[in-house]
């Protein structure tokens, strides 16, 4: 008998508003018996049907709802959702390099699909989706006719679903590097070994926006493969790209050469230590970019993360010349925009600077958010003009 999940009283409000996740501690009773990863129907305390989704008793997220009606043809629904998600991106003008499926925001919880030219990079983060990998690949081939599909499910969050980390070829062939065009620039993407799914597509519009501020000498911290660095190089006199990863810095140099830039140099270093060294040397820049990886993966570590953000933003502000800009980002959804903005105010006071906030940005439109799910709205980007 298929699973029927009944919630505790008043626990349905978040689900009715459009959130997908049903936590185990929100459940009053479970009726029926089926396999882990099967479809379970979720009901409110008074028996109103709320939706259906994949169940996983090994996870704190017991059910991930993605069906809100009586349909049961799961594979067809997945294919239809993939088509709808991609059609929405095409309507926005994306054609080569973009996030084609953004999990919960596209009613496909735990599934991420990034398109890099003729190739796809896929992340599957839940048991239910993992069990339907073959159907997902089939739907992607039908929708995109790609030359190759590569899986990048080598992320620790899969352990919470009782799944191993996995990466590898799912379809066709995928080269070691894929050259895509973003903001008019050629960028080499390594979907096999690059961070996340190979590249940070969520910052594409913010990288383009940097051209308004990146005059003179630019310092790009946590540069990864050079998205901000290369956009800055279109208008700056010089760009110093900093990262602790040699692989990332090698990619920066490859991308600089692809675009004929000679004003980009790389520095391999711990960013915190390097900024302190620059401070001791009285080194300053016209524009400092801070785009660190998430400082926290859990809500319990949010306060520690804010201390890290406070430290690095205080250092960054002190390195900006009078009239220059600090572009600072956070990609952790556990650090809210309000908390991040308050931290920036604290950093300004610590740095002893007078600052104007000239722009507040978020993730690109191919990473849509759900107002009912804070987890989908994670990227913060502030542009601050600095003076004494």
List keywords for this structure.
6-stranded mixed β-sheet; globular; 388 residues; 20 strands; 10 helices
Structural commentary:
By secondary structure, the protein is of the alpha/beta class. It has ten helices and 20 strands. The protein has helices at residues 13-16, 74-91, 127-130, 133-144, 204-209, 227-233, 246-258, 271-280, 302-318, 337-351, and strands at 3-7, 21-23, 27-31, 39-43, 49-55, 61-67, 97-102, 111-116, 119-124, 148-153, 166-172, 178-182, 185-189, 217-221, 238-243, 264-268, 285-290, 320-330, 354-361, 380-387. The protein has a seven-stranded mixed beta sheet, with helices on both faces. The mean pLDDT is 94.
Q: Main β-sheet, in a few words?
A: 7 strands, mixed
* Computed Rg: 22 Å
Give the overall form: globular
N-to-C order of helices and strands: EHEEEEEHEEEHHEEEEHEHEHEHEHEHEE
Number of helices: 10
Find the structural class using helix and strand composition: alpha/beta
């Amino acid at each position: 008998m298929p699973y029927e999940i009944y919630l505790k009283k008043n626990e349905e409000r978040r689900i009715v508003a459009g959130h997908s996740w049903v936590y185990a501690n929100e459940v009053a009773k479970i009726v029926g018996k089926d396999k882990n990863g099967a479809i379970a129907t979720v009901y409110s305390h008074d028996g109103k049907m709320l939706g259906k989704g994949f169940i996983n008793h090994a996870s704190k997220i017991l059910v991930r709802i993605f069906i809100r009606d009586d349909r049961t043809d799961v594979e067809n629904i997945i294919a239809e959702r993939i088509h709808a998600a991609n059609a929405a991106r095409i309507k926005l003008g994306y054609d080569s390099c973009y996030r084609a499926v953004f999990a919960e925001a596209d009613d496909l919880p735990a599934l991420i699909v990034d398109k890099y030219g003729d190739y796809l990079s896929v992340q599957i983060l839940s048991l239910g989706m993992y069990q339907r990998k073959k159907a997902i690949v089939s739907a992607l081939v039908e929708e995109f006719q790609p030359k190759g599909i590569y899986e990048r499910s080598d992320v620790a969050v899969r352990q919470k679903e009782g799944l191993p980390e996995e990466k590898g070829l799912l379809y066709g062939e995928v080269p070691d590097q894929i050259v895509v065009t973003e903001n008019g620039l050629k960028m080499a993407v390594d979907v096999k070994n690059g961070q996340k799914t190979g590249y940070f597509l969520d910052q594409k519009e913010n990288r383009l926006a940097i051209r308004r501020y990146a005059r003179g000498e630019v310092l790009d911290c946590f540069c990864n493969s050079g998205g901000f660095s290369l956009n800055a190089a279109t208008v700056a006199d010089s760009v110093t790209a900093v990262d602790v990863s040699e692989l990332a810095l090698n990619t920066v140099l490859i991308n600089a050469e692809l675009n004929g830039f000679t004003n980009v140099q790389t520095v391999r270093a711990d960013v915190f230590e390097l900024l302190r060294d620059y401070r001791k040397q009285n080194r300053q820049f016209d524009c400092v970019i801070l785009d660190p990886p998430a400082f926290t993966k859990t809500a319990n570590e949010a306060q520690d993360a804010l201390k890290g953000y406070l430290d690095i933003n205080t250092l960054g502000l002190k390195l900006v010349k009078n009239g220059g800009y600090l572009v600072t980002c956070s990609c952790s959804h556990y650090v809210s925009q309000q908390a991040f903005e308050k931290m920036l105010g604290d950093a300004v006071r610590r740095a002893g600077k007078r600052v104007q906030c000239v722009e507040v940005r978020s993730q690109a439109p191919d990473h849509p958010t759900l107002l009912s799910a804070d987890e989908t709205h994670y990227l913060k980007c502030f542009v601050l003009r600095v003076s004494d």
